[in-house]
Design brief:
Layout lengths: L3 H35 L1 H40 L9 H29 L7 H31 L19
Helix pairs in contact: 1-2, 1-4, 2-3, 3-4
Length: 174
């Protein structure tokens, strides 16, 4: 059985990781493909304003907050008094995938800073495709794996109610 604290942390992590997964998958499947057809020069101007501005701050905050909540839920699951004191594999997968997502984000930011330092490069394709792989596709995959893992963890939880009474999510013993 898990505590309501663990459940609440995991529910919050699910919301944030779901938002992040949706945003990154939409960017991977739709937005970047449109930029490929519109051209790389307009992408540079858009990306400089959107990603390095508000987008970086918002997505960075959501990514770090989701990872922190996942690790807090894992720690809470370990310290739950009535549980078997082991972290579910789904939380381990979610933690690893969220850290990978943050690492891919750091790589993407370094690529965008390189672009900002020399926006007049004659051929933007290599930088665009590196960003597409590291900053979009790999990040989207990590975010999707994180979201699936936290949903898996959330659905597999049995929550204890107040004062050790079984919660509504627990099946009656036969």
């Amino acid at each position: 059985m898990r505590s309501a604290r663990t459940f609440s942390l995991l529910a919050a992590a699910t919301l944030l990781s779901g938002w992040l997964a949706g945003a990154t998958l939409e960017r991977s499947a739709v937005v970047m493909r449109v930029w490929q057809t519109l051209g790389l020069k307009p992408w540079v101007h858009f990306d400089h304003g959107a990603v390095l501005g508000t987008g970086f701050t918002l997505e960075g905050f959501v990514g770090v907050a989701a990872a922190a909540l996942i690790f807090a839920a894992a720690a809470s699951a370990i310290f739950d008094r009535e549980s078997e004191r082991e972290t579910p594999i789904s939380l381990i997968i979610a933690g690893v995938a969220s850290v990978l997502g943050l690492m891919f984000t750091a790589k993407a930011v370094s690529l965008l800073q390189l672009l900002a330092a020399s926006p007049a490069a004659p051929d933007l394709r290599p930088l665009f495709y590196q960003y597409l792989i590291w900053g979009v596709d790999f990040r989207a995959a990590a975010a999707a794996i994180t979201f699936v893992a936290v949903v898996w963890a959330l659905l597999s939880m049995r929550v204890s109610g107040p004062a050790g009474k079984p919660g509504a999510a627990e099946a009656p013993a036969e």
